[in-house]
Amino acid sequence: MFADRATIIIKSGKGGDGHVSFRREKYVPDGGPDGGDGGKGGDVIFVVDEGLNTLTDYRHRRKFAAQPGEEGGKRNCHGKNGEDLILKVPEGTVIKDAESGKVIADMSGENRRQVILRGGRGGLGNQHYATSTMQAPKYAQPGGDSIEIEVKLELKVIADVGLVGFPNVGKSTLLSRVTNAQPKIANYHFTTLQPNLGVVDLDGAKGFVIADIPGLIEGASEGVGLGLEFLRHIERTKVMIHMVDAAGTEGRDPVADIIAINKELEAYDPALLKKPQVIAANKMDAVYGDENEIIQKLKDTFEKDGIRVFPISAVSGKGLKELLYCVSELLDQCSKEPVVYEPEFDPALRFFKDEPYTITVADDGAFVVEGPKIEKMLGYTNMDSEKGFLFFQKFMKEQGILKDMEAQGIEDGDTVRMYGFEFDYYK
């Protein structure tokens, strides 16, 4: 079966512990501390691979872990950093937190590489803890913990146009006729099991990507059949082509079919019905003349709502040019921005949510914030980058730390100090 969903467990690498050791050299009776720092744990990184179009690689393996960092060594030797874990996915894969269902990342648009879990920071060796009063520290910092979470991967096909309809109305035939796609075609009464994509090239107009969305059935939005497996692929499309059998060869009512599919779309996500639609009334090669009572009924029912009806024959090619140019015009009126889902959840925030912290005011008036969650989060955040600093600000706000500092009287311009980091507070 087409693999468009998978649930896996991912784990970042634990940071290597700092080392406790002392110089032992001839003629140096009291050598100082020389314990090296531990290596950073490996990150878990998702990367878009253009050669993939399914999530099959994640159907038969559940656990994926990055390498831990190595412990620091004597003589100031730094532990080796753990290797990052690179997980390749097809474009359009949405990564969600399995527990909450919230989006962690959408591997679409310009987002080709995303660090999902950061490895633990390496612990500091005992050389960092020597002071004038403690010249032989026997303590080194442990490495930062790893993070392990369960995530759901969902592939949502990226196409400009979605081709929808009940099984056996000719969608695969149309796709093979107007694009370079080569779907399997036969007189099946059951549905194609995977979306097929193809590129439509038009003279004097912009081409577009069209996806044959596997046949829907009534009850699809409630999980009947394979409905939910495929409805997600329509979310990214900008225009929908409803395909029906205008010759009545299957004994179905095309008007009722379109109404039924629109009900399923609305039940899944009401926003889907706001997308422009056209109707491709197929199999006109089996009809005498250019119209019949089915075509007229379709026009009477839907064209008053602005949904145009095009009598076509996917076999002979009749009417396809008019249909495709109309779709191209509709796409020109749509937003050019790709449909990309915004992140709703950061795994690190759950990892630190229950750990305590303290806020004290130093003698110089600086607000000192300390606690395991602060130290750990700093170890996972690149404070030198604007994006990293904004992420840390979001963490402070969501954890209630900013609110607690305001309750203690912090004002604009006051200094905030956290484990060697210092910055000015501005609301």
Automatic annotation (TrEMBL):
Gene3D superfamilies the UniProt entry points to: GTP-binding protein OBG, C-terminal domain, GTP1/OBG domain, P-loop containing nucleotide triphosphate hydrolases
EC number assigned by the record: 3.6.5.-
Cofactors that this protein relies on: Mg(2+)
Any one GO BP annotation for this protein: ribosome biogenesis
Record keywords, A-Z: Cytoplasm, GTP-binding, Hydrolase, Magnesium, Metal-binding, Nucleotide-binding
GO CC entries: cytoplasm
Subcellular location: Cytoplasm
Region feature Disordered, mapped onto this chain: 16-41
Biased composition (Basic and acidic residues): 16-28
Gly residues: bias regions: 32-41
Binding site for Mg(2+): 172, 192
CDD domains: Obg
Pfam families in the cross-refs: DUF1967 (PF09269), GTP1_OBG (PF01018), MMR_HSR1 (PF01926)
Start and end residues of each OCT domain: 349-427
Domain (OBG-type G) ranges: 159-332
Domain Obg residue range list: 1-158
InterPro entries recorded: G_OBG, GTP-bd, GTP-bd_Obg/CgtA, GTP-bd_prot_GTP1/OBG_C_sf, GTP1-OBG_CS, GTP1_OBG_dom, GTP1_OBG_dom_sf, OBG_GTPase
Location, primary (coarse class): cytoplasm
Molecular function as annotated in GO: GTP binding; GTPase activity; magnesium ion binding
Superkingdom, natural source: Bacteria
Protein function: An essential GTPase which binds GTP, GDP and possibly (p)ppGpp with moderate affinity, with high nucleotide exchange rates and a fairly low GTP hydrolysis rate. Plays a role in control of the cell cycle, stress response, ribosome biogenesis and in those bacteria that undergo differentiation, in morphogenesis control.
Family recorded in the similarity comment: Belongs to the TRAFAC class OBG-HflX-like GTPase superfamily. OBG GTPase family.
Quaternary organization: Monomer.
Protein name: GTPase Obg
Lineage: Bacteria, Bacillati, Bacillota, Clostridia, Lachnospirales
Encoding gene per record: obgE
